[in-house]
Amino acid sequence: MSERLLVRGARQLLTLRGPQGPRRGPALKDLGIVVDGAVLIHEGKVQAVGPASRVENLADARKAREIDAAGMVVMPGFVDSHTHLVFAASRLADYEMRIEGRSYAEIAAAGGGILSSVQAVRASSSYKLEERARTAMAGMARHGTTTVEVKSGYGLNTKTEMKMLRVAGAMDGKPLDVVPTLLGAHVVPPEFAGRPDDYIENLCVDCIPRVARRKLARFADVYCDENAFSVEQSRRYLLAARRAGLGLKLHASQFANLGGVQLGVELGAVSVDHLENVGPAEVLALAGSETIATLLPGSVFHLASRRYAPARRLIYGGAAVALATDFNPGTSPTYSMQMILSLACTEMGMTPAESIAAATINAAHALRTSATVGSLEAGKQADMILLKLADYRELPYYFGVNHVAATIKQGKVIYQEKEADSI
Ligand SMILES: [Zn+2]
């Protein structure tokens, strides 16, 4: 790791440098672009970043191994701050039935829906879960993600939730940084059907303390929505999680606007995610808070609901917006942050610059990792991607295409496109 690397020749180097806090309003558009830039890397961290004329003339740069980024866009690796990466099987039958016009109830009656994912994960070995997740993680690295949050939530009993979190933890650093989140309160499991309060109680007295004691998760997340948990149930769960030392996250206002956003802001949640159905009161609450508004357009696209979160109103209103894939087998089977940026721009009216800041520095804030990742600044981790683009706006513009030529994680090249790949 003591080897020095010099990434040189970047036509546009997007540093995302800037003030400490999350980016809001007009600041979300400021990518800190250096034209003809270079990055010097030492021991996995950024040693120097800036114009090539300065960085390449440093004494240390002359001894460094060079990585040629000639003519490319170089930017921080994506921080995917909301995924359900650990699962046992795809949900192809659900997808097909939905296309054929069947209802959610019909799909569930046919053995599909989220409970089919729960059954599959409970029946699966840790080895099998990890094998599948590793394949997806390699895909994420290929598509430019360098840090990923991973939720449990397909176990819905303490034993299986812990199994999922152990799988997530085992993947940390291989090669992406993994931030594990307990999503015990995803839906009510069959064993507690009709008794959601009893399930929440079980999570508060058993699952949360055990997960926290073993340090298996950094955050706890709850699905505060219709067909999941009420605001009061969510509050009990989140308070127990906070007492146990976990940071807080919520799935909120995806289908109904119950008040989960206000609850998250009140309890100091690090993020509230989805927000397809928020109104002016929620925008106002978020604008006055440190809570990140994480938008997940992949699930809106895949479910064809056409009801995207009001990104423009959130940005104009002063909320700090982030973007994530929500990678999961039921509603958002993509791990491509590039595709998410295309959706954010085309369907939600975010500009290319805003979408990039939302997927890097603001997403890092949504995981409390902004001190180490999310921008290219001296002292931070050397997590970056080289894109086969001459202008960063091409990133969302050419949609559904992988633009990544190389992914660098803590100064190591973890993915490099081979000649044959690019044909
Ligand atoms: Zn989710």
Mean pLDDT: 96
Question: Outline, from the CA principal axes?
Answer: globular
Assembly type of the shown chains? single chain
What percentage of amino acids are in beta strands? 15-25%
Q: Would you report the number of β strands?
A: 16
Secondary structure class reads alpha/beta
Bound molecules: zinc ion
**Quick one: biggest sheet?**
8 strands, mixed
Can you give the helix content as a percent range?
A: 25-40%
**Amino- and carboxy-terminal Cα gap:** 33 Å
C-alpha Rg, in Å?
21 Å
- Low-pLDDT parts are none
Number of helices: 17
Molecular structure report:
The longest helix is centred in the middle third of the chain and has 18 residues, at 196-213. The model has no long low-confidence stretch (mean pLDDT 96). It contains 17 helices and 16 strands. The chain has helices at residues 52-55, 59-63, 92-99, 104-109, 114-123, 126-142, 158-170, 196-213, 231-243, 260-266, 280-287, 297-303, 311-317, 337-348, 352-358, 361-365, 394-397; strands at residues 4-14, 33-42, 45-51, 65-68, 73-76, 78-80, 145-151, 177-185, 219-224, 247-252, 271-274, 292-295, 320-323, 384-387, 404-409, 412-416. Helix 10 links the parallel strand 10 and strand 11 (271-274). With 423 residues, it is of the alpha/beta class. The strands form 2 sheets. Strands 1, 2, 3, 4, 5, 14, 15 and 16 form an 8-stranded mixed sheet that branches. An 8-stranded parallel sheet has the order 6-7-8-9-10-11-12-13. The structure holds zinc ion. The site of zinc ion has 4 residues, from loops.
